[in-house]
Amino acid sequence: MQNASQQGATREIRVVLVDDHALFRGGLRRLLEQQGVDVVGEAADGPSAVEVVRDAVPDVVLMDVNMPGFSGIEATMQVRAVAPTARVIMLTISADEQDVEESIYAGACGYLLKDASEDQILAAIRDAAAGESHLSPRIAANILEHVRSSSGGPQLPEEARAKLTERETQVLRLMAEGKENAQIAEELFISTQTVKKHVSNILAKLEVENRVQAAVQAVQRRLL
Q1: Where are the alpha helices (DSSP H) in the chain?
Q2: What are the pLDDT digits (tens) for 162-175?
Q3: 55 shares a domain with 163
């Protein structure tokens, strides 16, 4: 359970819930509202999700992958088109690597399984609203292993690898393990603000939008 300061961090965040199971949406809504999250809309399928997000203009969308109408992945692309500032987190039962990769490249900034804890879901919402990305450690391990096994070709030359500093490479490795900024800071004995600066530099150097894409590209480029 969150303390008062953590609840305050979620109080101004506007969220839309997208899932075709009404009981799950209802339970999640109650959980979030108890922690001060402002749930401004719900949808049970992809087409409705696009309409609700267009009207509500939320900060964060929690999106299921498998839904009627069209998938949450297609819905994510359309949501990003009608509400570019809305940050999409996939919250689903699917741990399939292809679903994860397609979600990320559709514009999702996070991917959580429905067995995630309350704290994990709330942390992902806070991260998304702050412009960060969130990936559950199990999903991070699965997708990066999939990328490693499917990425052939020679390793990049040393000058390409040198694009990241040694510290940035350390941060990137921990990002690829699904660790949050606070966990990275603790492990590297640096401040959370310094981690955020490193993450920003990594995204710019790798020319990607979020930390999940950075981790995938780092594996593909043999930076890890």
Answers
A1: 4-10, 22-34, 46-56, 72-82, 97-106, 118-129, 137-150, 158-161, 166-176, 181-188, 192-206, 211-220
A2: 588 999 989 988 88
A3: no
